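Write out the 3D structure for:
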Amino acid sequence: MNLTGAEILTEVLIEQGVDTIFGYPGGAVLNIYDTLYDYQDRITHILTAHEQGASHAADGYARVTGKTGVVLATSGPGATNLVTGIATAYMDSIPMVAITGNVSTSLLGRDSFQEIYITGITMPITKHNFLVRDVKELADTIREAFRIANTGRKGPVLIDIPKDITAAKCEFIRKECINVQKHTEIDLDKIEKAAEIINAAQRPVVYFGGGVSLGEASEELKAFLNKAGIPAVHTMMGAGVLCHDDMHNLGLIGMHGKSSTNNVIGDADVVVAIGARFSDRVALNPKYFAQKATIIQIDIDQSEINKNVYVDYSIVGDVKQVLNGILPYIEENQHLEWMKKIHVWQDRDYQPTDSDSTLKPHQIIRILCETTEKDTVYVTDVGQHQMWAAQYLEHVAPRSFLTSGGLGTMGFGYGAAIGAKLAVGNSRRVIHITGDGSFHMNLNEACTAKSYELPIITIIMNNSVLGMVRQWQTAFYKKKYSHTDPQRQTDFIKVAEGFGVKGYRTTNPKEFTEALKEALTQKGPVWIECLMEKDEKVLPMIPAGGTIDDMIMD
């Protein structure tokens, strides 16, 4: 059949299993939006307040479902507004296809109105990008974009489509969407050698990250840990892969991880790194990371091997495939003496103090966990609240803790929560945890949540300062609070009312509990402001470049 480029785009999106896209219209994508009007019974388009919000929504949709998120924007500023969202997805290996319009091919390179070289801008933050110059190449380009985004190490791909290509016609032939996920050929000798090292270990530990969740390998990891009797620590991106009360789950590692988990890495004789990249928030001083250990690294991306920490042994491949392959060679064990030593460290872990009169971050998180369903999806922005959430949330399943780990994007949360809620529908609760600093960045997406009557509960931890940066100024800059106490006068309750959103203000645990219970009965979006002391800190903390010996506990 003979179709326009805009119709071909829409048909291929459907062919790829896309039923929801996020975006914002503009001149260069008018033909696409005109076609979306005709396809609205087959593809749902979610209009956000800003293109950055749309990109984070597509990201959140992808994180919670495992499917490829799709975002659509016009040329020029519409395209550049996607950049932060694309970079966020790139750093956390999230599958996304970003579609941008551009000026007609005859106007490219002429500094035309709203022209931008978006493929050049996004080259470092995409797995690949395309500029389509021939409508005959459009369908296969889109198919290739989806294949690249969701195979191997996942990530974002951008397709830039000039306006005249969306209007041009050519013959279109539908094709069945084929799952072409490629698995790396695993060397059996390497599998057996790794198993030998693990079986001989006296003090082994597994250090895992977001790659286990992205690789859908949670059950395989559990089987491996159960058989080997090995304790495990996780990065922030690995939260939820193991249930918080799993006997093998020691908890968060790194800058704001427990002292016990960091001690385990420091004293282990074998560290098995699975789907983790030894980031500078975990291996703060690579020279001293797991000094006593033989390190085995399992990762799908060859470029991650020896990038941040030199390892003794590596297996490059799909994590699910590798774990399934190694399990038959693993001997059953319990490592009881090693676990006794770990329990001694755990008894010395930092314990925050409760309060009845003021709101403490750990109490806010505890009340959330006690009051809401166990399968709730939690979405955070970036800052102190993000770390408190990572430390204290009782994670029970993969893809239930959505946060910007690699890029650390303030303003990520509301858009991502919208995408997540649209993905899970009425089957699961979505709660957005933010700080007053992060929330000021993209609270405009409240109009999106309200327009679609999405029952997202936003918890605003308001300490009236830019808390994480201020904490660093307290610890390392002689309390010179340069521009971290902005003296903002924002009344979040009035702002919420202006958006048509229900708002609550709370100052102590009793008020917060009552507000939360009422919020859970609301049909649309709700904000709960939690007024907190400005000197609340994320503890423990290891300074950048430090070791466990430098840990700050107060």
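The chain has three domains: 2-171, 188-347, 361-531.
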